[in-house]
Specification:
The structure is a single chain. The chain has 150 residues and is α/β, with parallel strands linked by helices. The protein has four helices and ten strands. Helix 1 packs parallel to helix 2. It is globular and about 35 Å long. The protein starts with a strand and ends with a strand. The mean pLDDT is 85.
Amino acid sequence: YFEGVDGYKAINLKMAKFDVIRSIEVGTLNNFMMSEDADLIRSEFIKNKVSIKQITNNAFEEIFNKSELISEMNTSGQLDMRYVSADKLAIKMDIFIYGDNVAFAAVQNEEIRGYVIEDKLVALQWKGIFDHFWLNADRPIINGGRTSIF
């Protein structure tokens, strides 16, 4: 269990030690913490060459205006995003799948709260769910253009 910005930050820093993060997100780190803290976490992702696959309900993203590090992650191929309509998957909380872990985080009463399940079978099940939506998702329009030529 974790709570508050410090708890959310600690979970993200822990994830920065894994090769791949599958993420189903309501928003970006900037939605939950100061941009300096968000960029500290992004720096760890870049340093450790973490690959992030992110699913969002946002068809249009202006995230690259929020941080140069996000642009760097996208350009290097570390960050890849997909859009899924809320009609198919209404994202109400953040879900992160990494290693044998699944973390859930949500804002409740204006406070971030969440928990981590450390279980290989649970992580495998969530990877399958994520991969299903990923394969059927579209690329969001980023700052007025697609994230790739596809």
